[in-house]
Design brief:
This is XRE family transcriptional regulator. The protein has 96 residues and is mainly alpha-helical. The chain has helices at 10-30, 35-42, 46-53, 62-71, 76-95. The chain is built from five helices and no strands. Helix 1 crosses helix 5.
Length: 96
């Protein structure tokens, strides 16, 4: 798959997953929503949403990402692009 920042390994994909989760958390906080409210509205236990946001669920499905992003009225592509950008910035910071 071509792109400005292609993923090359399973490690990179798992790392991106964590950044996507953090970006979803950031979006929730920006909208001043509680985990409890979002989880209730989406039919998830609050602990499940907490585990997603903190990157503790390595197997979060695309459908779950889409449900959460849709709830926040944000395109999942925007979430992924922000996550990739932050991941790339953090990698540059570590390289210095």
């Amino acid at each position: 798959m071509k792109g400005s920042y292609p993923m090359r390994s399973n490690h990179e994909l798992l790392k991106l997953h964590k950044y996507i989760c953090l970006e979803l958390k950031h979006e929730r906080q920006e909208q001043r929503l509680t985990q409890e409210k979002v989880a209730y509205d989406l039919g998830f236990p609050a602990s499940y949403l907490s585990n997603i946001e903190n990157g503790k669920k390595d197997t979060t499905s695309l459908v779950t990402y889409l449900k959460i992003a849709n709830y926040y009225d944000v395109d999942i592509d925007v979430i992924c692009k922000k996550a990739k950008a932050k991941m790339k910035i953090d990698e540059c910071d570590f390289d210095e």
